[in-house]
User: Which sequence fits this backbone?
């Protein structure tokens, strides 16, 4: 893995884009570069290969004096498949190789890395090999794997100076202690001499160095995560060659490439136990240890226990010292990188230490803050005030907090929150000041105060009492806010209601507390809205109040009800007066209706009795006259016949008038009256009428029977006038102390909601009659689906049933 800066990445991206564009043009416009069998032609049939002598990539065999190595074998393999001829040019360093390129002595160079500096001289193929970096050290008995993330900060890492791995470690692990070495060999020697704990070497160089006897005790103990990408570099005036090399490299068998890597770059590291030097040193060490142990046993037998105790104490002290040093480093790192500004001020009022947060907060650098008087940041801090603050904090262990402001480097003021405490460090005494930027806090506080003032102003001008109820978890709700209107409306000060257990309930009228408790219990149990109307004891007597509160759930069982209490006494009095007026009018209407029905019954009896008797006498007299008439007077006979016919017609009219005023069939019961009216309607309109009446039905008071009969008459009249029905069904049933009359038709129907009462006086009359009877009216209808009108009235349970 190669890590580059953003600018280097942009340069590489632009370069790759240009290179691919050039290659594409070359492939499209110069097909002569590739022969029919896909091999290179023209000027690329001979390569001058420049290579740096750096085993295991390239080196000279001391016995055969032949050039060998991983890069040498790779170039030979590619050249064989091309085919091209090769002339080798060897150089001791990369600098001399670049100089040879500038002189024009080299065409390609394998095993190079693509870096921003190298892109100025070379064109590169795609990577053909990745070389990882390993952590090398003296293994312990546990075989522990070393991880850079958990490595102690006191560990020393030896790295080759000037390489990419050094930059990688500086960027990703700046806290680790790095020991620069000239070469990979020097890095391993530093580990052997204990000048470093570990060394970081690329795997290829490590494979060669570990073959040497002096490094046999070393072993790979971890992985770094940093990888070299090896490529074939081509002179810049051969832009068509890198794509061809990429194609050749991709066509190489992966087994051949793995074989090259395994033989040259990743040979099996010999175990430590395979080294004769290891066993020789082990024997010497064991012998020396046994000899020394015998001498120590003979010379220190008496003082062994004391020595062991001292040794244990020293080891414990060493461990504690290491832990303390580690804690000190961690504490220093935490203080330096804290987001809270930290200042150490001595007794003279001068700043001895300031972390990075203070520098960023106030705009000073480290040199400016060193020994800067604290009065420069806080001009109001006089020597007397400083001495008083020092003595106050020195004599008390507790910290002090406050809000102040500090002058920044550019002269502007910064509002800060200040925590101050006293610290003794050795013989020195310091005042520790913690600074935090409270600009946003002050802005939020000002906005909150403005919002609260606006809310209180709105609540004070609302014509009602604004309140807030809060409930946490299962606790009883309490009033958290009450507007000042409570004093004028209920005669109770807001302070007396806030937090009280009874709250608003104390002002509810005793007769209405049951309904208030039921409404509030439902709202509290379900965390729902509160909606209640009732009487309350106000400052000027009983008032009618309307309470509406909306519930808000804040989570964790926290519920808030924001509501308002309105004084609706005026509207309630108007409503009561209107209801009383309506009741009075309804009673008057009932009285007038009763008087009218009584008058109709009286007129019906007079018409039927008086006028009927007169017509009967008149018909008898006509019959006597007709009998006493002499035969042969045909003119008078015809006149008598006409007069008799008129008398019969008058009889029919008198009977119809009497029935219209009060049908005599009502005396036979409401069931018979309904059946009689249905037959009359069927005969008059020609519409079939189906009647369902119980065989036994409780007798009704005359007012109820007349009322139901008139409702039936009005309903059938509406069917005849408006419904355009082909069938009517009439039903009467009695159940659970109520008598229900239903009239259904299959006519055109209508929308009851959109129907105007001003255009349907018949329905208005029916509704009023139902109300007078203490019943209820139901109309079910839709356009095109007919209409069902149902009337239900209460009946006395002790009425006797009649047949």
Assistant:
């Amino acid at each position: 893995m190669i890590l580059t800066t953003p600018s280097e990445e942009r340069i590489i991206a632009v370069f790759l884009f240009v290179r691919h564009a050039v290659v594409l043009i070359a492939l499209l416009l110069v097909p002569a570069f590739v022969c029919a069998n896909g091999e290179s032609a023209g000027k690329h049939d001979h390569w001058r290969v420049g290579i740096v002598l750096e085993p295991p990539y390239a080196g000279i065999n001391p016995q055969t004096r032949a050039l060998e190595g991983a890069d040498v074998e790779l170039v030979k393999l590619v050249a064989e498949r091309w085919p091209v001829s090769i002339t080798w040019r060897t150089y001791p360093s990369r600098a001399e190789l670049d100089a040879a390129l500038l002189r024009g002595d080299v065409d390609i160079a394998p095993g190079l890395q693509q870096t921003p500096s190298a892109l100025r001289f070379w064109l590169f193929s795609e990577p053909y090999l990745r070389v990882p970096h390993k952590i090398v050290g003296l293994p312990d008995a546990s075989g522990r794997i070393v991880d850079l993330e958990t490595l102690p900060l006191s560990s020393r890492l030896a790295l080759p100076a000037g390489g990419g791995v050094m930059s990688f470690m500086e960027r990703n692990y700046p806290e680790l202690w790095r020991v620069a070495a000239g070469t990979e060999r020097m890095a391993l020697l530093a580990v052997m001499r204990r000048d470093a704990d570990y060394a970081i070497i690329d795997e290829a160089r490590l494979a060669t160095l570990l073959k040497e006897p002096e490094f046999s005790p070393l072993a790979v103990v971890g992985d770094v995560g940093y990888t070299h990408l090896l490529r074939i570099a081509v002179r810049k005036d051969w832009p068509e060659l890198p794509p061809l090399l990429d194609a050749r490299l991709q066509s190489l068998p992966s087994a051949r490439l793995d074989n090259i890597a395994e033989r040259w770059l990743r040979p099996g590291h010999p175990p430590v136990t395979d080294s004769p030097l290891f066993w020789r040193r082990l024997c010497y060490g064991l012998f020396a240890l046994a000899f020394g142990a015998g001498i120590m046993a003979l010379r220190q037998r008496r003082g062994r226990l004391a020595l062991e105790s001292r040794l244990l104490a020293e080891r414990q002290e060493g461990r504690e010292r290491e832990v303390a040093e580690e804690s000190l480093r961690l504490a220093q790192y935490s203080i330096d990188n804290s987001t809270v500004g930290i200042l150490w001020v001595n007794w003279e009022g001068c700043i001895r230490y300031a972390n990075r947060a203070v520098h960023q907060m106030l705009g000073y650098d480290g040199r400016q803050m060193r020994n800067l008087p604290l009065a420069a940041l806080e001009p109001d801090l006089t020597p007397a005030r400083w001495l008083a603050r020092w003595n106050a904090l020195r004599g008390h262990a507790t910290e002090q907090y406050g809000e102040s402001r500090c002058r920044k480097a550019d002269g502007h003021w910064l509002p800060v929150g200040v925590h101050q405490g006293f610290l003794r460090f050795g013989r020195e005494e310091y005042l520790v000041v913690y600074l935090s930027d409270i600009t946003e806090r002050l802005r939020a506080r000002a906005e909150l105060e403005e919002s609260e003032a606006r809310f209180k102003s709105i609540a004070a001008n609302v014509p009602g009492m604004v309140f807030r109820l809060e409930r946490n978890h299962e606790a009883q709700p309490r009033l958290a806010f009450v507007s000042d209107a409570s004093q004028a409306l209920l005669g109770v000060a807001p302070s007396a209601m806030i937090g009280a257990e009874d709250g608003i309930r104390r002002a509810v009228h005793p007769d209405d507390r049951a309904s208030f408790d039921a409404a509030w219990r439902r709202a509290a149990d379900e965390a729902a809205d509160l909606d209640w109307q009732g009487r309350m004891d106000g400052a000027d007597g009983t008032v009618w109040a309307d309470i509406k509160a909306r519930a808000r759930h804040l989570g964790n069982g926290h519920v808030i009800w924001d509501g308002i209490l309105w004084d609706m006494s005026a509207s309630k009095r108007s409503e009561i007066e209107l209801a009383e007026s309506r009741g009075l009018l309804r009673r008057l209407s009932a009285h007038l209706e009763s008087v009218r029905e009584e008058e109709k019954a009286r007129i019906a009896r007079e018409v039927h009795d008086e006028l009927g008797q007169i017509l009967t006498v008149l018909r008898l007299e006509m019959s006597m006259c007709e009998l006493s008439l002499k035969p042969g007077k045909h003119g008078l006979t015809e006149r008598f016949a006409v007069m008799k016919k008129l008398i019969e017609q008058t009889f029919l009219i008198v009977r119809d008038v009497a029935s219209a005023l009060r049908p005599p069939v009502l005396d036979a019961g409401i069931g018979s009256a309904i059946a009689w009216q249905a037959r009359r309607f069927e005969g008059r309109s020609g519409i079939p009428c189906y009647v369902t009446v119980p065989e036994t039905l409780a007798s009704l008071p005359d007012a109820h029977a007349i009322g139901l009969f008139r409702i039936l008459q009005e309903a059938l009249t509406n069917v005849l006038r408006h419904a355009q029905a082909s069938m009517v069904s009439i039903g009467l049933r009695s159940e659970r102390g109520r008598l229900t009359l239903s009239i259904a038709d299959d006519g055109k129907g209508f929308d009851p909601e959109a129907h105007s009462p001003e255009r349907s006086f018949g329905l208005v009359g029916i509704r009023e009659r139902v109300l007078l009877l203490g019943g209820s009216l139901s109309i079910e209808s839709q356009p095109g689906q007919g209409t069902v009108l149902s009337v239900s009235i209460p009946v006395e349970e002790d009425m006797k049933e009649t047949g």
About this structure: Residues 1-6, 26-42, 269-274, 798-803 have pLDDT under 50 and may be disordered.
